[in-house]
Fold this sequence. Notes:
The chain is built from 14 helices and 13 strands. It has helices at residues 11-66, 73-84, 146-165, 208-227, 248-254, 257-275, 301-340, 357-405, 413-441, 453-463, 465-471, 489-506, 556-559, 564-574; strands at 88-91, 97-100, 114-116, 171-174, 180-183, 283-287, 449-452, 474-479, 484-487, 512-520, 523-530, 578-584, 588-596.
Amino acid sequence: MSARIPLHKRLLVRLLITSGLIAVCSVAATAWLAVATTTQALREEQGQALADDMDVLAELSGYAATHPDWSGVAQTVRKLSAKTGRRIALTTSGRRVIADSAPAGTSLPPSAAAAVDPLHTDTDSERGAQVPGIDPRAVGPYRLTEAERVKVDALARKRQLCFSQFGVRTSLSRIPSGRMVITDPDSDSAPDHVPDACADGQLNTPTPTEQKAIKAARGPARACLAEAGLPVEYAALLGSGPGAVDVRRTLTGKLGDKEARQAQPCFDEALRTQLDPYVAPAAELFLGTGDTPAVLFDMSPANKAKVIGAAGLVLAVTVAATALVASRLVRPLRALTAAAQQPPELHVRVPVTTRDETGILAAAFNDLTERRERLEAQRKAMVSDIAHELRSPLTNIRGWLEVTRDGVVDPDPALLGSLHEEALVLQRVIDDLQDLADADAGTLRLHREPVRCDELLQQVAAAHRVAADARGVGLRTDVDGEPWLDADPVRMRQVLGNLVSNALRHTPPGGCVTVSARRDGDDVLLEVADTGSGIASDDLPHVFDRFWRAEKSRSRRTGGSGLGLAIVRQLVAAHAGTAQAASEPGTGSVFTLRLPGGPTP
């Protein structure tokens, strides 16, 4: 069969061509992207490394500004190292390691990347809080107490409300000492215009904590100014702004540029002396890749040869792997095709050699073959059973009609009654077959309505009372509560009627058949119990099979058509219920129907 398939249409060839094209395109695209983006990526990586370095320096400077020593910095170093992917080490000026993200004993880089000293910051970057001079996060004795912070916050909000009443937009921000200040939302600086009604002077007045710290700093500042030949009155400017530690803006606003530059060193020295006990000592920062330059990508002949060689290798591996996978995929498909082309009566199976999708398909094919074989056997058995069921009554009718035609017997009422009874047997078999055919085809129509179980059981008992009395068998009903069903009442009478008829046939005179109903949660249980001969355990799984009888010797006239219990199962399933049988030989049988309960009207 495969020989008649053109080569270019075979699945294996198409898979190979497709995989080859994909491999060529992917390798070419990868090489082009590598050439086009590597240099730019390396440059961006270099810029990112510099930005990361500044972030590391800013955070470690902030740690030093808020801690009197480096005793707890190891955790911060490890966190920064994990974030940036860099080795970070802090040492003293004598190269004694304070904290290091690398294992102990690892040698340090040749030179330090920067010095970490919150009292002598010196960098051109404006990232974070790292600014020239003294780190503003080093506040030491200027940090407000909780009570002072609450008071200053209230004053700041009051001032902001005053500004808003005059149409001035402001925002609140907190400086490192804990003081709340008012700033322009567009420039993050103090507002250019202050309405007279809002200039109460309370917000920027130093708190007792700040006053104490300012007073301590002004003494060294005066001495320094006097030594420099500058007016000692400049010392009063220390603490005149909202940020007591950062006085640069205050000096620039109160003095000229020249005087401010001359006085600034005295203020810085006084503040450094005052803050020194509150900050960690100066340290050196080492970064593992800080001195490694970025290497630009170069498409030299050697690199071109590497790219071409890698592309060829990837292409070869892709084609080989695809050929192997495709061969394993096509082999079971061919076996499935060959099995499907065999005559149906052979019921050919295919071996399941894999557990992938093809193996699942093969297993499903085998299951389908088995089901088809079982259905074929059932079809043959059903045809044989139907022919046997119809042959007996038709043979009786034909025989009596022939002897009557030949004048052997007279067509008296007894003969006509016998023929009528045989016709009824035929009609019952045909009706049962029609019900089963409708159920199998899914065309069985149900006319659901609320059904009271007590009335349903009484109707079934009344319909079979005469037959029960004729056989000397008691027939009674038992209803627990008032259960209701949402069901087709005609079909439910047919179901219970079949069960009761079956029970009466198996119950000897003096026995009893009980039809009961009760609720079980959301379901309703209908039971038909008899005190008859019972059913053997080996026969119990087959009681709902078509044309099955526990007593094979019984005739169709006395034993029924063999379809009654099969119809029971189909009608109950149509109502979304289940049918079960339980029996012990010599003690009787119990048939239980579990059906969804209906609401009480």
